[in-house]
Amino acid sequence: MKPSKQGDLDGMCGLYSIVNSISVLTKNEKLDTRAVLRIAVESLFEDKNKMKIIDGFEIGTLKDVLFRTKNILLLNGTEIGMREGEKIDSYFPFYKSKFEPTRNEFIEYLKEHTNQKNKVAILGYAYSNGGNERYDHWTVVKNASDDGLNLFD
To answer: pLDDT tens for residues 80-108?
Structure first.
């Protein structure tokens, strides 16, 4: 028997990806990331299915939670360490898009956008160990190159 670790029993990686992306973008040591997580959890709980914190969630929910979290931070962010006037924008280029990039096109897109100042990507992916187990995860891409992705996870 092995002990459980974060992610084994919960679906909070989406929430962590939101907190981590805000942390990277603000580059602010005074930012209270626990308070940002609290805001993100409260934003998630505005949805009817509170079990998403255990079961995980899809991109639509991530988009909604990020939007609500950003709005709260815009109004009250200085209370938890954000700088006055600091804001966070988001863009979902492939959400509900008919365009499905190839792996190489996607990597090129990440390289072009995450290597710019003050930009990150929240990336959702799934993989399998070859058996019946599937693992889904949200992570933050700080930048990308031909050598790979620099994750903040």
So the answer is: 777 887 778 888 888 888 888 898 998 99
